[in-house]
Amino acid sequence: MKEEPKRIIFGSTPIILLLILPLICVGVDFVWGNTIHFKRWTQYFSSSETDFSGTVNPTVEEPESLEFLLSRLVRGKDRRNLEATGFACDKTVHSVVCVANQPVRIYTSNMTVYVFSDGVGEQETVVRPYARQEDNLKVITPVHILKGNATSLACLHNHSVPAVIFSSGTTGNVFHEINEIIIPLFITSKHFQSRVLFILEDYKPSFMSKYGKVMSHLSDYVVMNPAANGSVHCFPGSVIGLKYHDNLALNASDIPGGHSMREFRHFLREAFGLRFRHVSQIKKPRLMLLSRRNTRRFLNENEMVMMMEELGFQVIVVARSKMISNLNKFSQLINSCSVLVGAHGAGLTNELFLPSGAVMVQVELLGTEWPSNTYYGDTARPMGVHYLRYKIDPEESTLLKLYGRNHSVITDPGYLFRKGGYRAARTVFLDQQNVRINLARFRNTLVEALSLVTYSDF
Q: What angle, rounded to 10 degrees, do the helices at 205-218 and 261-272 form?
């Protein structure tokens, strides 16, 4: 029985020693005059990590050098060329991205980038600063890159961060805006950690109003409109063009590397201040129905809504383009939904704002199998969103009455693509088609959706 107090005293000894150790060390420093500063001791009790050698390893990493960050946008021979000459272009199937890791002068009046070179004569490179080069959009203003001696140009504005030059291209279609501008901009500039200045070619106030929050979360600086500026700006480096990976996709193994779709979705939640991270946070299942007013309309939409409500969904019908174009508000609304339902079209791009574990139901119309899968179906799972496909029967399409059961439009939709190309197919399958949903069959799809959001495993 007398051993018990000894065990208690012995068990507390290490704690006592830990408490008095700093006092002993400080006393030693005071008496013998060692050069161990108080700041060094306080680091042992901070959030920093310390190894057994006494070296303090701060948890906050030092920012990487600008040269390294710029080099991440090129690889192989292009990276070696960048290191040797200070300028290189990464060219892939889709995109062209030109990088200068040395001081450049940009004359915004005619969007010319001057890169110093000690070679003989001037060398010019022309870049259309848009992610998908194959689209060959005429609205993209080209950027001229001149390698030579530009010391005659006086710097009127000096910047301490690199410039990223890109075009707002064509606007008004949310799929193309996010697929060819916003995601590529994230891929190209995120690793700079906001230490970059955007120069927006073909500047449109409507685009900035819609995506201003995205810009401000990728850069600490005001986006420059070159048309309203017209002077010479000097930067420590530059990036012309945007990197493109795939349709609504980020490839973590592609340059600059490391970014995933789930990381991009987390970025969107922060940028737009979205409330719901996971569908389980939404107490009552909420369904958004994208209602079209021109083509690809649901002809029995009222009956569809009644059925959805009978299943227990709170239904939101969104039809106004003005609401959808106000992304600051619309992203909040769609983020509060468990299920998104819509016919094949750009509006389904908004699945990006759904909480994880939510469901996107795409009504696949006749002739839209490939784009339905490629643009919205295959891209859903990497977002952490369940995807349900409702493929309509010919009897549900207005094209059956318009062309007849035996027409190739009904029997072989792919024939129209093969014969007339995209334009001919679009005229029929997107511009002429409406749908009357088979409620009994569609009900099964919605029951499955309800089950998924109730017991989501994402």
A: 110
Going by the DSSP 8-state scheme, the letter that residue 182 receives in this structure is I
Q: How far apart are CA 206 and CA 322, in angstroms?
A: 12
Report the C-alpha gap between 268 and 50 in whole angstroms. 35
Tokens for 67, please give them: 């040269």
How does residue 211 score in pLDDT terms, banded at 50, 70 and 90?
very high
DSSP 407-453: SHHHH-HHHHHHHHHHHHHHHHHTTS--B---HHHHHHHHHHHHHHH
pLDDT score at 120: 56
Mean pLDDT confidence for 278-296: 95
Q: Where are the beta strands (DSSP E) in 58-162?
A: 87-91, 96-100, 104-107, 112-116, 123-127, 143-148, 157-158
- Of the chain, the percentage scoring pLDDT greater than 90 comes to 72
Are 186 and 218 a contacting pair, CB within 8 Å? yes
- List helix spans (H) across 33-124: 38-43, 66-71, 76-85
Contact of 354 with 336, CB cutoff 8 Å: no
Count of other CB atoms within 10 angstroms of residue 99: 25
Crossing angle of helices 439-454 and 301-310, in 10° steps, is 40
Q: What residues contact residue 358 under an 8 Å CB cut-off, 6+ apart? A: 279, 337, 338, 339, 340, 351, 385, 386, 453, 456
Q: Which phi and psi angles does 114 have, rounded to 5°?
A: -100, 120
Mean predicted confidence (pLDDT) in 372-377: 96
178, 330 in Cβ contact below 8 A? Answer: no
Give the integer Cα–Cα distance in Å for 366 and 344: 10
Cα 342 → chain centroid: 22
The rounded distance, in Å, linking the Cα atoms of 273 and 268 is 8
Residue for token digits 């870049």? 127
pLDDT at 253: 86
- pTM, two decimals, is 0.84
Phi, psi of 123 (to 5 degrees): -120, 130
Residue with tokens 């994230």: 186
Least-confidence region, from 106-110, 240-244, 319-323:
319-323
How far is Cα 350 from Cα 330, in angstroms, rounded to an integer?
A: 9
Extract the tokens encoding 327.
């992304």
CA distance 375 to 249: 10
Q: What integer is the mean pLDDT of 214-239?
A: 95
pLDDT at 30 over 60: no
